Amino acid sequence: MTVKSTFDHALLKMLCKYDWEVPFESITEERILTEIDKIVNNVKNGSIVNIDALFDDELRMDLHESDVHARVVNYFKLCEDIISRNGLQTTFGTSMGITHKCTILRKHLQPTALRDEVETHQKLIDKASTKNDVALYKLVKEKALEQEKVFRSVANRKRLQQQPKQENKKRHGERRANGKHDSDRTAVTSKSWGNKRKVQSETSTERNVERPQTTGSLRTATKSKPRGGCFNCGKDHWLSECPDIDEAEKEAILAKRGSKKQSEKRFRVKRVNPRTRTQCRMRSTATLNAKLDLPYCADSGSDWNIISHNHVKELQALDCDVQVVELDGPVELEAVGGAVLSATHGVDVYLCLNTAAGPVRCQDPKRCLVVESDDDELIVGRVLLAELGIDVDRELEQLAARNLNDDDEFGDLIGIPMREDTFDEDVAIVINGMVVDYVERGIVSPGAEEDRLRNILTSFKGWRLALGDDPPARVPPLRIRLKPDAKPFKCKVRQYSPEKSEFLAKFNAELVRLGWVIENKESRWACAALPVRKPNSNEFRQANDYRPANSMTEGIAGVMPSLQVRLEECKGKEFYAIFDFIKCFWQLPLHKAYQEILSYMTDRGIFTPTRVPQGCTDAALHFQSTVEEVLKEYLQECVLLWIDDLLAYANTVVELMDVIEAILKRLDEYGFKLNPRKCKLFQTEIKWCGRVINKDGVGHDPERIQALQKIPPPSTAAELQEFVCATNWMREGLVDYARVVKPLQERLDESLRGTKRSKRAAAGIRISLSHSELASFEAVKELLSNSAMLTYPDPSKQLCLLSDASDSGWGLIVSQVGDWKPDKPIQEQQHELLICMGRSFTGSAANWSVIEKECYPIVHACEKLEYLLMRPQGFKIYCDHRNIIHLFAPGKELKKTMRGKLLVGLLDSWSIATRLSISRASTTSGLV
């Protein structure tokens, strides 16, 4: 069968006559197929559609489909249908098109938790699915199945928790339907007109209640009257029957009352008839020795745990190991009403307090006093509550103290709304996944440890996947100090492209809705808002040019920690945890008196922030000092902080769990929010601030090193500048870095001579590396592959400083030797690298004498590495220059001018504090 025979002849004749301009009889099969291919491969109507808008409108994942596999298949099929329907096969057929297709598929994934999981996997684990739609399909299906399992687990747990409440509601509804209290029910029988139903009473006796027959052929219902009368006129009829107003006015009255009812909903209390204590509240229970469940009271005011003698007998019948012990002396207790109880015996039991959030298990047995009492409750004493971290009196004292302080006192809550923080189901899925992962990896033991970890994580109410309309943290607001000559600054109105203008309008409307900024038409200050395109994306982010305001601000004299020094605290620690503050600066309040200074302008208006914005002078230091104040009792013991990156460390899993619990409690107390997706717990090796940390030392991120090694030779000064800066940040573990990178540094300086050294200016300068510079470029990459891990200083080991210098530069290495052998030369000792440094001699330093150049690295080390070299047993210096040894010989005399010229006086002061040994080592030449 030919193609021509399958065609509609009338349509084919029209195409031949008007489009292809060939006679119908002479048209060939090849010509038909060629023309059809042209039609298929062209876009619809010959115009490129707005692809992003097209997929935003049509691409959806059907969450009503319960089969995860079918849901994912239908989602990808829908994407293919949209592409085919709009003639976009060629557009998405290239490698770039497939990458964009993967971006679109990831962007429209639902729910949000699934999309975040896929994005995290692509960023941190494997990027193959960003350019391969088949790999993306497998990844989406895998993550969707994992989330479905967790979702079902959480849903089942909720259903089991809500089942008792639903049963209570059902029984309550049956009692109301019968119109009588359970205890007053009697069997009533009358003529049946239809249905009968059976009601189960509290005594488990079965009876029939029959509905009386209504008169007439049809049952008519008498409409009840409103108790409060009409909402409009107050008369004895419903609002819908009121003849005085029309339907629009009736709807307005109902809407007004509905909004009022919603705002007052949290303050309403349902009135109930007086009943017994047992019937008035759902009592929590405690499990004793995993055998006996008893209701418990945790707010009695008693210092002791108290149990009745009858309950002890019940427990002994269930557990033969329970023994009653005699107390050293009788303990008198005062009961409610003034009655005095005396306890002469006690019992040690394992307690598990069952709460709405989960069980709280006591790790060791707790002593309970045995009394003769008819009370059916176990009394939990204040001593036990204090051990669990609950001290009501102390919390009330702290609350009272906060109310006495002004708004500058740390921890003040005045003016900041308090509300019950809750996290959504997506957060619960992430938290549950974290716990399951640690248990499956064998880090956390199932049972008690697992329950404790889950309780710790779920007790923290500050988990957020995205920062919403939460109130700011309960910390002192940021105050800005302007310079004496400061004057209000207002930028000129900028013209943005339609795309950027639309982004700024939507973004700032959302900020206004969240309460993070307010629209301020009377502001005297305004810096420019800068929409910046995100890398490898069509989306934007907003940055504000606060340089004019910062130039008129006196910055905080804060202190950022030195990571080189502080990381010594991680020495020998087995387990680590990191926490990430979500939108860290936006969590901090900005004092109202200084909000106007940080206002910014878009093409739609001026907006004033109510939180601390990123980019202002004091933002980073204020956040650092604020969180340090919150966690001050844990700093230098188990916590390191670098702005929004928090590192915790401990020797064991139990110790780290204690640290995590303490940190989360403090952060929860002050209202800070954390991102659970970026938090990692119980890691034996952790990536933090670009470094890899474990118990043995500190190294650089292997992924960062691999990324630098894959960079092609730079074609602009900006690319060369980026490469040199990135490798320079890692130079502490790169031996001989200064000499190897020198040709690249000289080329960069030459390219940027006479212009700004900014990235924007450098991007416009084209360069081409010479053969020697290309060799230097490859040598730096090779040096990165040999990057050494820096070990932690050990005071018990011998410290060594090896220095060397040449006409063009200098270098030094600081190492330590654990098993120092005096009879062995320095090159045969087992060294552990602590740090290496090096520079080139430039300017006037290039004209120094040889002895000055040889002495400089030693002096530089004593100035810059005092924290490392100032140790009880001193350190040894090794060099290859005989004249330096001559300078420090105790029996030699030198001119005072020579000693001052070479800064030997500085080294003399070290010889008093430490045992300084300078020796000649022929092998140091070429070490650095």
Automatic annotation (TrEMBL):
One GO BP annotation of this record: proteolysis
Polar residues compositional bias, start-end: 211-223
Domain of life: Eukaryota
Domain Reverse transcriptase: 513-693
UniProt keyword annotation of S-adenosyl-L-methionine present: no
Keyword Lipoprotein attached: no
Transmembrane regions listed in the UniProt entry: none
Region (Disordered): 155-226
GO MF annotation, one: RNA-directed DNA polymerase activity
Extent of Basic and acidic residues compositional bias: 175-185
This protein's UniProt keywords: Aspartyl protease, Endonuclease, Hydrolase, Nuclease, Nucleotidyltransferase, Protease, RNA-directed DNA polymerase, Transferase
Name recorded for this polypeptide: Reverse transcriptase domain-containing protein
Organism: Phytophthora fragariae
